[in-house]
Write a structure and sequence with these properties.
single chain, alpha+beta, 5-stranded antiparallel sheet, 2 helices, globular
Amino acid sequence: MDSAEVSTAVNEPLDLVKLSLSERVFIKLRGDRTVQGVLHAYDAHMNLILSDVEETITLVDVGDDGAVSNVRSVARNMEMLFVRGDAVIMVRPLLLYLCISNIMTKISSCFAQISPIR
């Protein structure tokens, strides 16, 4: 193989991340945060550099009795973002995430239309 070629072989988990370079990715982070953006660089610690980023934070309001009173999402956009690797839970190509979400929505709607057997 020529040294200038990029290998598409997957020998270790980080090779999957390498295949997503210059592609839009979906990243789940600690603290009920998600990030979507174009992956430019990563390292062995899963530190990531992204551009054209949308961050979504899920906020849960809890009352004095411990019951959830309100759940809301707040989104913000950024040109560039450095994500510290210890906050990363999952990295997935965005196209795959959108396809899976679409399929799950269709499956849920199919089950909702089925009447229970009596």
